[in-house]
Design brief:
The complex is a heterotetramer, with 2 copies of chain A and 2 copies of chain B.
Chain A (H helix, E strand, L loop, with lengths): L10 E4 L4 H13 L3 E5 L7 E2 L2 E4 L2 H8 L3 E4 L3 H13 L4 E4 L6 H12 L4 E3 L5 E4 L3 E4 L8 E8 L3 H12 L4 E6 L10 H10 L5 E7 L4 H12 L4 E6 L23 H10 L3 E2 L6 H5 L1
Parallel strand pairs in A: 1-2, 1-5, 2-4, 5-6, 6-7, 10-11, 10-12, 12-13, 13-14
Antiparallel strand pairs in A: 3-4, 8-9, 8-11
Chain B lengths: L4 H10 L8 E3 L2 H11 L3 E5 L12 E4 L2 H11 L3 E2 L2 E2 L3 E5 L3 E12 L4 E7 L6 H7 L4 E5 L8 H10 L7 H17 L2 E12 L4 E3 L2 E5 L8 H4 L9 H9 L2 E4 L4 E5 L2 H19 L3 E4 L6 H12 L6 E8 L4 H14 L6 E7 L2 H11 L4 E3 L3 H12 L4
Parallel strand pairs in B: 14-16, 16-17, 17-18
Antiparallel strand pairs in B: 1-6, 2-3, 2-6, 4-5, 7-8, 7-10, 8-9, 10-11, 10-12, 13-15
Helix pairs in contact in B: 2-3, 5-6, 8-10, 9-13, 10-11, 11-12
The chains are: A alpha/beta, B alpha+beta.
Chain lengths: ~280, ~375, ~280, ~375
């Protein structure tokens, strides 16, 4: 089962001929992901990595019946790529692009609310269902099939945790990086709900960080609705208040969103919180 | 990116918001000239990108050009929360009958802009939010619809603004929202928006924060960055595309990814306590090349507090061999005796480790796990490695 | 029962202090409509016709629990009034205003799609459930309670038909003018469906005119889904092609929307079409 | 409101769409001057608000200024479908390699704008729509999102436009959409959009229709109305706020409401046949005052074809007594012997009828129902009342 992506995923790559797009497409294909084509305006009719390139998402979907798309388009053009994917009614959109202006994302977010699409990201590592599909930039070898669902705001920190799970012999159902930007398409709560409903997922790992209220909402959801055990880690306990730590999402807003506050809320909801991400496998046993 | 008060108000004026007719001075003499031109009582206001300048003595009234010159002389060069005052704004003093707060920002939970008003203007809005949340009224804005007149009226009515000011208030709210969107701001705030004794509404103080991700399409705003107010390292880091924040611990950290960088900092504190802890936040980002890594290392080593350096790289887009080469390049240019601990994992980790080992640098130690790496870096900082 | 409005309608009047707004509010009150208040920016706190005036729809809804609103606001400000009503989540919005720019209405229409509101109009006479509620400008005395549902694109032509029904002893469940503008909130099909589902409505009268394709869609709906008998009239058989007849809706578009075409489609769907609106009562017997 | 070709193209140019560098002439001499300035071959194009001017001889090539003058002399003053040509546009002739259709309009069924393109440019798009609908590609536009680049690419790809023209096409499509929204247009159309032998895209012919309801906020466009091309009655009717269309029957109709007005016309034809039928469409609108009614009557009576007049008023907002007074006022100013039938119903109908009866005007007859009124008006027109 897993969630969102699996063997049946027919993936389109928006920006497939770009440097990043082509590099990661190659990696995804090597992992076994079913990439059905790519989109690069002006390069329709060409081929890359053995896949057809289209000028527009609409024509690509018509030709390939893609049911998911991944976006590696430059930040300045990413909103357009997102609107295009939404208009083409692609059920799953994963946006890797970093640095999209927040005003653009607020429009995308509003447009998304009444659409047929789900967006993961932007500014995220994507998602991976071990041995089935890798849709994004996570290194494939760190994961192995199993029944731990992993959801995270962060990129490399996710790899750290997934790697630790795998080393400890705990495989994963699906690993998802939802991104750390202020406006993202899919929240912790959305993913927790999917994991709760997924028969293949037995335990869940949640990786958060300072800034925003997403982890507080997650705690609320876990307390009220989750029956599966959840372990977690919150990055940024050592960050001084009011300092920006790379992510726009990591600004401590008016006393809200500190690591301490989030850890407390999650603990109160029954989540086991690690002091060190490498402890997570122990907390799941 | 934060704008100074005077920059924010210039921007407000461009969108039709009434602001005082003041100007900026960098010398007491200029302050004198401006005060003379304005006539009457003026306010001399320190322009620093930090709150609390009033309490620090950075805002004062002057009743004559001579007094303005004298106050400017006191304020210019003053240090407020670690920042040197290099400019003062000379504004005509307003005849204040009432003070309002009005601000637009992004509500990340709602995924849309929110405009807020309060009759408790002039104080920190965070304080009002804590102590008297009902005094703040909010309207969420549909980004496609923009701020509508009825929303401005909802605010005016919500803060019990006398009806004769509604039209002016509505115009200012619309202008502020337009200024916010057209500037790719994440915050545009007027505090206080004063009602003068003459019945005019005027933006006495203002603040804008611009979305760094949008500066590529806001060249005019990008040029407003006050590089004088920034540390040399911050400027270098930005130029190299690095995210860098200086902290006051002793372990320099270089990590790829913001979440992992914070985690690495947390580990140094977990094992080293408050005494040792992280000397900085530094995210080299995804796919960092050797050059960028070298710049990052130079920035870390330029901090005299740094007693040890911790590299934690989990390769994904970033390739560990590239990072390894970057470190060696930097060390060849900036030799150092500071002990260093390096932990490479993920894409091309094996190749990266080989490069490091083959270089046989005496003060460069390897670690397998993050825990081991953090413990070693703490030990090194304490001189125990 | 009836549809959309009845004794339980708690009506707000946007533009209540204006010339038209106050005139028709008086008429509506005289008819027995439960007007709970009005909105005129800048006049909040005043009273008119014994009803409180508010500055904004939001505050009016909070104070009065209105569940319907009628808009008599000048065309230049009508879109704003519509957005305000939609934002206040009023279930039923009736817009009488004539001459709203179509670019404004396209935005309102898009906004409406994902809202909690239904819009009747604009540029319509509103609706009337005899002896229960008159929400609009129809003369009240022409109608009487009964079980004929009337739906029409037109204003005075509707009165003509309703009057003829009443004269012939055929009362009405609800009479609705949906408006003849190019963009309207509620279509023939929407109303036909409500009449089909309304136990109190036994027969239906549909009054259309040249221009657009709404009557063709209505015919399609009737053919497929209606079990109740429908009689109809289409105005504009004598209009020359390509000539504008007052309504923007009455332009014959590229061979589409002639009276003959519409009559044919409706007849094919089993609708009895009158040559003369005064014949309609006979067709219903 | 329709714009002339030259007006539409001026407007296009304002939004960045490439158009020929031509100008408008009202005399043959001006045509000569413009052709001389442009040099080379020019096209002389009649500016009339009606289709089919090409077939009517209103568009011709001229190879010299002299020929341009001579052709302008032929075309100016020419009558095309009842309209006199008062202006010609002199455009440089283009070297046409391909012709595209590109237009934006409102799709009333979808409730949103639609942009359409076809590789079959240069002919009437309605004809293409009928005969070869697959040759037209469409993209619906979200009014909040505007036309997106990918939609323009969908069009370009859909009409098999060679890829080297995509960028130019996309810019033109965006500009056309912006022109359409900013002008409150209901139609903005380029036909043909030509690809020149030099590889440029240029709008050779253009058409815009402006939403009459939006003219209040488009003063610049409202001034472009070609009142010279309109009948005196049309101008008078518009000034009085009346909807009036002249037709060629014999029964003048005055009605409140467009639907009822059309119905009343239908009734005259139903009972009178093609011979008699309606002389006009005239909607006095809601709440008509006496003055307006008087103007309406004057306009109806100014048509010499009118053999009888039919008033059909169903009062709602409109009060029948007001209408009755208006009719009497008009008749006192414009006495007439044309027989008239009046039917008043609805608000204040009784009062209205009394006013009419008390005036005892010999050629003014009453009717109870619409059917009776129409039959009487037909009889009157045939001299049988």
């Amino acid at each position: 089962m897993a969630i969102l992506v699996d063997k049946n995923t027919r993936l389109l790559v928006q920006g497939i001929t770009g440097r990043e797009g082509s590099f990661h497409s190659e990696q995804m294909i090597a992992y076994g992901t079913n990439i059905v084509g790519g989109v690069t305006p002006g390069k329709g009719g060409e081929w890359i990595l053995g896949k057809p390139v289209f000028d527009t998402v609409k024509s690509a979907v018509e030709a390939t019946e893609a049911n998911a798309t991944i976006i590696y388009v430059n930040a300045a053009f990413a909103a357009d790529a997102l609107f295009e994917a939404i208009d083409a009614e692609i059920p799953l959109i994963v946006c890797i692009t970093e640095g999209i202006p927040v005003q653009d994302m607020m429009k995308v977010y509003a447009y998304l609310q009444h659409s047929k699409s789900r967006l993961i990201g932007p500014n995220c590592p994507g998602l991976l269902t071990p041995n089935q599909a890798k849709v994004g930039i996570m290194p494939g070898y760190i994961a192995k099939p199993g029944n731990v669902g992993v959801v995270s705001k962060s990129g490399t920190l996710t790899y750290e945790v997934v790697y630790a799970l795998t080393q400890a012999g705990l495989g994963q159902s699906t690993c998802i990086g939802i991104g750390g930007d202020p406006i993202i398409g899919t929240s912790f709560v959305d993913v927790l709900q999917m994991f709760e409903e997924d028969p293949e997922t037995e335990k869940v790992v949640l990786i958060g960080e300072i800034g925003g209220r997403a982890e507080i909402e997650a705690a609320e959801y876990i307390r009220k609705h989750m029956t599966k055990p959840v372990a977690g880690f919150i990055a940024g306990r050592s960050a001084p208040e009011g300092t920006r730590m790379g992510h726009a999402g990591a600004i401590v807003e008016g006393g809200e969103g500190t690591a301490a506050e989030k850890i407390e809320a999650l603990r109160a909801a029954g989540v086991r919180i690690a002091d060190n991400p490498e402890q997570i496998p122990d907390l799941l046993r | 990116m934060n704008l100074h008060e005077y920059q924010s108000k210039m921007r407000f004026a461009k969108f039709g918001i009434p602001v005082p007719m003041g100007r900026v001075a960098t010398t007491p003499q200029e302050a004198y000239e401006i005060a003379r031109e304005l006539g009457g009582t003026v306010v001399v206001k320190a322009q620093v990108l930090v709150g609390g300048r009033g309490k620090a003595g950075g805002v004062k009234l002057a009743h004559s050009p001579e007094e303005a010159e004298q106050i400017a002389n006191q304020i210019l060069g003053m240090e407020i929360k670690g920042l040197i005052v290099r400019r003062v704004l000379i504004d005509p003093a307003a005849n204040i009958a009432g003070e309002i707060y009005l601000g637009v920002t992004n509500d990340r939970a709602a995924g849309k802009p929110v405009i807020m008003a309060s009759s408790e203007g002039g104080v920190e809005i965070e304080q009002v939010a804590r102590e008297k949340p009902e005094a703040i009224v909010r309207e969420h804005i549909d980004p496609f619809l923009g701020l509508r007149d009825y929303q401005a009226r909802n605010l005016a009515s919500g803060i019990n603004l006398p009806r004769e000011h509604w039209k002016a208030f509505s115009r200012i709210a619309t202008a502020l929202y337009n200024c916010y969107t057209a500037s790719d701001a994440t915050l545009a705030e007027i505090n206080p928006l004063v009602i003068t004794a003459e019945g005019q509404l005027i933006a006495l103080d203002g603040k804008m924060v611009i979305d760094d991700n949008a500066l590529f399409r806001q060249p005019e705003l990008a040029e407003m960055r006050d590089v004088e107010a920034e540390a040399k390292e911050t400027i270098q880091a930005r130029a190299a595309g690095l995210s860098y924040v200086k902290l006051d611990g002793q372990i320099g950290c270089m990590v790829n990814g913001a979440g992992l960088a914070m985690t690495t900092m947390d580990m140094t504190k977990l094992y080293g306590g408050d005494d040792v802890g992280p000397a900085n936040f530094l995210d080299i980002g995804g796919g960092a090349q050797a050059d960028k890594v070298a710049t990052a290392l130079r920035i870390i080593l330029s901090d005299p507090n740094v007693k040890s350096v911790l590299f934690n790289i989990f390769g994904g887009i970033t390739r560990c061999d590239e990072v390894a080469r970057g470190i060696l390049q930097a060390l060849s240019e900036v030799p150092t005796t500071v002990p260093m601990v390096i932990r490479l994992n993920g894409t091309n980790a094996k190749e990266g480790r080989e490069i490091i080992e083959n270089a046989r640098i005496p003060n460069l130690h390897s670690a397998e796990t993050l825990t081991e790496a953090a413990q070693k870096a703490v030990a090194a900082a304490k001189g125990a490695l």
